[in-house]
Amino acid sequence: MDLRALALGSTLRTAVTVVLALALVTGGAFALGWLGVPSVVATENAFGGVNETTTTVDTAVTVHNPNPVGVRFGGVRVNYTVSMNDIAMAHGRTAGVGLGTGNTTLRFESYLRNERIPAWWASHVRNGEETTVQVAADVRSGTLGRSAHVVPVTRTVSTNISGQFNSTENRPINAGLPLVSDPVLVVRETRAHWGPTTEAETPLETAFVVHNPKATPVTFGSIGYDVTMNGVDVGEGESEQAVVIPGGATRTVRASTVLENDRLDEWWVTHLERNQTTDLRIDFYARLSLGGGESVRVPLRGLTFEETIRTDIFGTKNATNRTASDGGSADDTTTGSPTTASGESSSPTDGEPTTETTARSTTTSAPTSERTTTTTSSENGSTTTADGGLLAV
């Protein structure tokens, strides 16, 4: 008898037996609830690069493994969705995730289609210039066939474009014409509100309370407008209406200023390139008949509307050094293109804005964050948030 073969065979049989026993014990421990299912404790999003068609969303998902051993055998998958006013803007998932004990931060990229911006903008206006940004995430163990869902965390983004138009400041209108003394009119009040918004157009209904200081009547033949956002033309037109303002009288002149929504994806690129900042400008002009003479086009420079719009959609604008222009990253370890489970580079497709990646990970022994972290219990759905600008779940 070959004693070495017998000993070696016994060693191999023993090793196989131990491995099988460990697998059975671990599976039984999960089944009996002795070991826990990994859960998502925090996510953080920031805008990365942007081009004419696509916006990159950089995501960090922190997954907590409550078990004393790492989880690599379970086919762990993490899913997340970013929506704005219930419009899905980006969806991502990681496959084949290996988790150590404690917290593991997974970093990956997904893509937002700029063509979705007009639909979001319309919803923003319909919702009283308010957007609810929602991030939902869950983690699933293939071994257990179970998922740990997290109550979505929301963030509200507000603007006040129409409200900023309202003013009671007296503003003169000068014709700048020979033999005509200025001002020819005085605007005593301006008002605005959003009209019925469609997927194609966003009308801003404006009203001007105008006083005629002259003795002779002045006729408004029409009011025209040009709208730009960061220099991008998003609307122009002329409102045809005749309003006669007798000498010494005051009348209200109304005009509908329409933003063309299909131009907003081009504006969106400039908004991100300028760190989520937009300079909105509306230039007005009028066609006036002074004293019954010919109609002349008069720039309404005193009515020029300028508003700076700033947003912080993910609440991380001031916490990252990444910019759209340099394509860099706030975290030096998060570089390059995302990779799929097969190791190939991932890129946007013509379908849903979904990216499946093999995430880069960093493991810590306890829930930590340089910024404020939101912790969530997936068992009772409760969420405790300390607001530090971190959009977390």
Describe the fold and architecture.
- The protein is mainly beta.
- It has two domains: 37-159 and 314-384, Immunoglobulin-like (Sandwich), CATH 2.60.40.10; 161-310, Sandwich (Immunoglobulin-like), CATH 2.60.40.10.
- The chain is 14% helix and 47% strand.
- The chain contains four helices and 21 strands.
- The strands form five sheets. Strands 3, 4, 6, 7, 8 and 18 form a six-stranded mixed sheet that branches.
- It is rod-shaped.
- The relative contact order is 0.18.
- The model is unreliable at 18-26, 29-34 and 320-393 (pLDDT under 50).
CATH superfamily of the largest domain: Immunoglobulins
Under the CATH scheme, the architecture of the largest domain is Sandwich
Distance between the termini: 64 Å
Order of helices and strands: HEEEEEHEEEHEEEEEEHEEEEEEE
Provide the fold topology.
Elements: H1 3-31, E1 39-50, E2 54-65, E3 71-84, E4 87-99, E5 102-113, H2 117-126, E6 130-141, E7 146-149, E8 153-158, H3 161-165, E9 171-173, E10 185-194, E11 201-211, E12 218-229, E13 232-245, E14 250-260, H4 264-273, E15 277-290, E16 295-299, E17 305-310, E18 354-357, E19 360-364, E20 375-376, E21 383-384
Parallel strand pairs: 4-18
Antiparallel strand pairs: 1-2, 2-5, 3-4, 3-6, 5-19, 6-7, 6-8, 9-10, 10-11, 11-14, 12-13, 12-15, 15-16, 15-17, 20-21
